[in-house]
Amino acid sequence: MAHEKQNGTSTSNPHHAPPSTSLSRPSRTGICHSQQMLKHWKPDVQFDTIKDQDDENEEPERPSRIARIIAHVSKQKLTDNLEHIKIRKATKEEIMLVHSEGHWKRIEETASKSCANIT
To answer: Start and end of every Histone deacetylase domain (predicted)?
Structure first.
């Protein structure tokens, strides 16, 4: 059996695809951060700010955790190697990838309320 080459790739192994050349630039790791993110918290959750640890039973979306992560990344001097991604509002489709329809409805219902009026 003859082994021909097509586009520089041997046809003897049909399961071996040539390397992809569709990326116009190398992929990088990015970071998206803004002071706005520190306003993201659940008003019905009480945080222990003194013993602020990452416990799997604690609420992960809390300002102190976000601030601690950003401080650690900065202290390790990693920010220069990261692609800085501009913050923007998430679309409903993006939110629905990780949250339920009920969660989305609660967000819509509380969007115009003050923290004191959210129950």
So the answer is: 60-114
* Measured distance CA(23)–CA(20) in Å, rounded: 8
Residue 22: exposure state from Cβ atoms within 10 A (0-12, 13-18, ≥19): exposed
How would you write the pLDDT of the chain (119 residues) with one tens digit per residue?
444 444 444 444 444 444 444 556 677 899 888 888 887 776 666 655 556 565 556 666 778 888 888 899 999 998 888 899 998 988 999 999 999 999 899 888 888 887 777 66
